[in-house]
Write a structure and sequence with these properties.
Layout lengths: L15 H10 L5 H22 L4 E3 L7 H9 L15 H9 L9 E3 L6 E3 L2 E2 L11 H11 L4 E6 L1 H6 L2 E2 L13 H18 L3 E5 L9 H15 L6 E5 L7 H8 L6 E5 L6 H7 L6 E7 L9 H15 L4 E5 L18 H5 L4 H15 L5 H16 L6 H9 L11 H12 L16 H11 L5 H22 L16 H4 L3 E4 L6 E4 L2 E3 L3 E7 L6 H9 L6 E5 L1 H6 L2 E2 L5 H21 L4 E5 L14 H16 L7 E6 L8 H6 L4 E4 L8 H6 L7 E4 L12 H12 L20 H23 L1
Parallel strand pairs: 1-5, 4-6, 5-7, 7-8, 8-9, 9-10, 10-11, 15-17, 16-18, 18-19, 19-20, 20-21
Antiparallel strand pairs: 2-3, 12-15, 13-14
Helix pairs in contact: 1-2, 5-7, 7-8, 8-9, 11-13, 15-22, 17-18, 22-23, 26-27
Pathway: Amino-acid biosynthesis; L-methionine biosynthesis via de novo pathway; L-methionine from L-homocysteine (MetE route): step 1/1
Catalytic activity: 5-methyltetrahydropteroyltri-L-glutamate + L-homocysteine = tetrahydropteroyltri-L-glutamate + L-methionine
Protein name: 5-methyltetrahydropteroyltriglutamate--homocysteine S-methyltransferase
Length: 763
Amino acid sequence: MASHVVGYPRMGPKRELKFALESFWDGKSSAANLEAVAKDLRASIWKQMADAGVTLIPSNTFSYYDQVLDTTALLGAVPPRYGWTGGNVGLDTYFSMARGNATKPAMEMTKWFDTNYHFIVPELGPETKFSYSSQKAVNEYREAKQLGIETVPVLVGPVTYLQLSKAEKSAPKGFDLLSLLDSILPVYKEVIRELKKAGAKWVQLDEPILVLDLEASKLEAFKKAYSFLGADLGGVKLLLETYFADIPAAAYKTIIGLEHVSAIGVDLVRGAKTLNLIKEFRLSGKTLFAGLVDGRNIWANDLVVSVTVIEELQQALGKENVVVSTSCSLLHSAVDLKDETKLDAELKSWLAFAAQKLLEVVALASAAAGKKDEEFFAANASAQASRRSSPRVHNKAVQEATAALKTSDHRRATPVGTRLEEQQKHLNLPILPTTTIGSFPQTPEIRRVRREVKSKKISEEDYEKAIKAEIDSVVKLQEDLDIDVLVHGEPERNDMVEYFGEQLEGFCFSANGWVQSYGSRCVKPPIIFGDVSRPKAMTVFWSQYAQSVTKHPMKGMLTGPVTILNWSFVRNDQPRSETCYQIALAIKDEVEDLEAGGITVIQIDEAALREGLPLRKSEQADYQNWAVHGFRITTCGVKDSTQIHTHMCYSNFNDIIHSIIDMDADVITIENSRSDEKLLSVFREGVQYGAGIGPGVYDIHSPRIPSTEEMAERARKMLAVLESKVLWINPDCGLKTRKYAEVVPALTNMVNAAKQLRAELAK
């Protein structure tokens, strides 16, 4: 039986690509240096998969930034503002699209389905001209072949690409992106023919859009696309790959009827119901790539359960028509357990990172072919039993406290308008108050101090002195800039989730379990393996210190329970809602300790609320109910005079705006500038929002510094649909990844924009 992997992490086991990219962006190394690092990484990944025994190895899953942006380059769909004049899309143009440059803003960035990975959103219109403008897919196939490794080139499928795009600003209202299908298909066909000429036997086209609830017209687009792409290929097989959820019945019936598609890939981890469709509507003349090894979590596969599923599939389809695969790309998993030093032997036995998942795929394929690795299966069975019975996993007191939550909806008793009036009595903020989202630039010196206290190279006293000095500096800077509500800058924090997870029971942490979020940005998700509780206060000391050095209001900064959940590797032995409620109780305790410590503005970030929304509409209401309830649990015990903020970033919020309102926060700051101010449309359509709201006036993920007038104009657009008494002025997101040389002028312009608008409103 063949084995297959949908995709693999591209950063490298030690984040080699991250550091090469950032060195290149900083002008410290050349494009040739970057390309050499990339080539070495690709070679090592292909060899690793070949050595593991994977028979169908993906290529073209490597990217300098994002696979959707790679597709934009392939199609030559570069927005005119970047001045590209044709030919191959080079690195300067590519990175300008991704990050912006000194004069032009970046393209919009948003979440890849319901993951924490971000993609660059294509901007298309009726005037967009498409041409074959990047030979990356063919070049990387040839590169692997020169190493003696046959691969399956991977492309983002044409229908998914168009459906994830947005209409450019000049496009007519209601422009149908699928009307461009006829224009892009010839480019796709040219690429596939080039791959065939280079020797490719398979081409994988990723169409995860198929797991959404698509209307019939969009399903018709698949018939058109794959009829065109598959005709007259001869010798190249097309694999249509889906992932992240169950395939709706109508979509499944459509794709199994595609004449020129040789194989269908499905996610049988998050899409377990698809198994019933496979049994009911048999594939005819097609191979099933069965995604049984979880690409989005780090728990070891229960091999016995997976073998049972394989046997069912073989019985339904025939042994020769089933290939064992991952549920999706392993891009969403950590890279390798091999070098982990922070996890004990028992915990490690419960886990499988990307490298170990390769072995699981191969072991399952071998077992299905009658060549079971008895030792491998025995070790797996032992680990599964250990995890089920371990006392480290279960805490009766936490379980009882969580069960008791079901008796209340935990709403604050006083309406938000009344609370805001009470809060203003002591905050005394100007109209259009200014604030930032939380973090300030993490300098090399601060990172060094954190490393050295962990390795005991400096004392706790020296560490505290250094962090206090940094807080003093950040507070003074904000006072000098005349910002109204301050933050302490979070110099003590490595990551907004990891920082809290390190102080909560039920969490553990890897040393090198990095996962790409966007571009060079990597996160190291905590691993939630057991019931969650808070042994002691986590942030009160630093927040109280920061408040003590200023008369301005100082925000206490917390990460919310839904974001901690969605940005962690979550235990898969109980419902996610149960784990969320456990975290909510821990954060509730912290909120109340901050309030008792004199902090009157507390921000509970829920940056990841939207990304946890299930892809299927039938499942969304349940998620929104328990996620919003989890947030309200954290705030239900505070006084009316305590102002609760929350923050959300880089997602499509319009379809959950009513859930955001239902969170009942006093103020929400939310990404707005990079998404072409989509948020405006919500309020234009009549949604009433009585709480404070701060739509971001500039994109912090770009080095570009917007002018005062540009930021003022963004705020004016919001004032057209919102009352001035509820509007806040702030950046899109935290400033951790920026440099002070960028932050100071940007915040200066932001504050000046607020003052300019106050003067205009006073006239």
